[in-house]
Specification:
By secondary structure, the protein is an all-alpha fold. The protein is 63% helix and 0% strand. The chain has a domain of 93 residues. 45% of the residues are buried.
């Protein structure tokens, strides 16, 4: 797999040399018009409609957005920053950092949320916010640092733990899970009993991560799970995400029990909770659900979780789904196999490539084998996908963008970057989604934020592929 630093460098070269495709005057004009529409929107529906249209312009929207943000009396600036933050482009983090100088605290908050999408960047632009009197500045500034992987942020987290704002303290407790040690355990232990739900929850998750044998963790998790007896579906869904975020062995036991809940929404949430865990000891609940659960949404969530956790044991139900008669299950299996990183997934991929009558199945197989380094088996099909990205037919370029997002390597990345500047908005949307998949970024669309979410309700943390 190509390092992300290499891919970012390629993107910069593409943009600078212009080989990413020259934007048409119509597309550029559309972006400018959508910026005007967003600035003038007064109702939530109009704001959302203009933001969605502007986001669909892709990187072509960046310059018009920056021009609008530079206007003193421009309206709906947080919404403009939300669109900017969701556009996957190498220039985006630096452009968001500029917005930290805005006079509007909502703009600064939105910029921080956007910066958290790129936690491998340099997060310390937000340090200036940590001493501000406005609570939201300190909350969002520390939020960026808590999600970062930079090792030089401990002093900021320790200072945040003493902040008068309880949300700042909760975010600091969240960030401390990356710094195991007796001193951290000592700091977190009293916070587990805090009255504030976010503070106590973040402290418990951090304590579970760095000191899993602590009896206090087991006691608290047992209480949380026990309280679900008469809970509604929403509460159960939240707890499933919470348990997964702890990455604790006891949480795995509780998630396994939730996989038997009569409500498919709870089982789906339990599968999503599994996907938040770094590794699991017993894959049997996932294997059984993938092969037998009557609800398709549960099976889809289980397939994603098992693929993310690289559970080799799911190969048996996947193979059964491939040779079965249910077309939906065949499709799910063919889409899951290419994402697996186990040797046992290679043979089924070869069989799909040889025997599949449907083109999309053969493409999925070719993508999977290509990602396994089996170029000789897949060159013809992969080459067809690359050629589709240059087709004059919109639907063919759209198909190419959707396929390219699943593929690894600079050749595919260059094609995606070109499609981000396509004339057609559907192609640009698919290409941006493909870019995010390739880079491992959160596949998030523009949205306005108020306060930082607890980690178990937030988008999962960036992880290396």
């Amino acid at each position: 797999m190509v390092a992300r630093s290499t891919l970012v460098g390629l993107a910069c070269a593409i943009v600078l040399c212009g080989c990413g495709g020259s934007p048409t005057s119509k597309a550029t004009g559309d972006a400018a018009q959508y910026v005007k529409d967003l600035k003038n929107a007064t109702t939530p529906d109009d704001v959302n409609k203009a933001a969605e249209s502007l986001y669909a312009c892709g990187p072509l929207a960046i310059d018009p957005i920056l021009n609008a943000l530079g206007e003193y009396d421009s309206k709906n600036k947080p919404e403009l920053v939300a669109v900017l933050s969701a556009i996957p482009d190498p220039s985006t983090p630096a452009l968001l950092a500029r917005q930290l100088q805005s006079r509007d605290p909502k703009v600064r908050a939105q910029a921080c949320y956007g910066l958290s999408f790129y936690p491998k960047g340099q997060p310390f632009q937000v340090a200036q916010l940590l001493t501000r009197k406005i609570n939201s500045d300190r909350e969002w500034g520390l939020y960026v640092l808590a999600r970062s992987k930079n090792v030089n942020r401990l002093e900021y987290l320790l200072a945040g733990l003493k902040d008068e704002d309880v949300t700042v303290r909760a975010i600091a407790a969240r960030g401390l899970r990356d710094f195991p040690g007796a001193s951290t355990v000592k700091l977190l232990t009293p916070l587990v009993d805090a009255k504030d739900e976010m503070l106590s929850g973040e402290a418990l998750i951090s304590l579970a991560r760095i000191d899993p044998n602590n009896p206090l963790v087991a006691t608290k998790l047992a209480i949380i799970f026990g309280n679900l007896k008469n809970a509604d579906v929403g509460a159960k869904q939240d707890v499933a995400q919470f348990l997964g975020e702890t990455n604790h062995p006891l949480a795995e036991t509780y998630l396994a029990k939730m996989m038997s809940d009569p409500d498919p929404r709870v089982r789906t949430a339990a599968a999503q909770g599994y996907s938040r865990m770094g590794k699991i000891k017993d894959p049997e609940p996932l294997v059984n659900a993938l092969g037998k659960d009557p609800d398709m949404s549960v099976r889809v969530a289980v397939a994603k979780a098992a693929s993310k956790l690289n559970v080799d044991e799911i190969m048996q139900p996947l193979n059964a789904m491939l040779i079965g008669k249910d077309s939906n299950l065949k499709k799910l299996a063919s889409e899951t196999l290419p994402t697996m990183r186990t040797l046992t997934s290679v043979f089924p991929l070869i069989m799909i490539d040889r025997d599949a009558k449907r083109l999309e199945f053969r493409r999925e197989a070719a993508i999977g084998m290509s990602n396994h380094g089996m170029i000789g088996h897949t060159y013809g099909e992969i080459d067809k996908i690359i050629r589709l990205s240059e087709s004059k037919n919109v639907e063919e370029r759209l198909q190419a963008a959707e396929c390219l997002g699943k593929m690894e390597g600079p050749r595919y990345y260059v094609a995606v970057t070109r499609l981000e500047r396509d004339d057609d908005p559907k192609v640009r949307l698919a290409a941006m989604d493909a870019y995010k998949r390739q880079m491992g970024y959160p596949r998030i669309l523009p949205k306005i934020v108020d306060k930082p979410q607890p980690s178990w309700l937030d988008f999962p943390r960036f992880r290396d592929k």
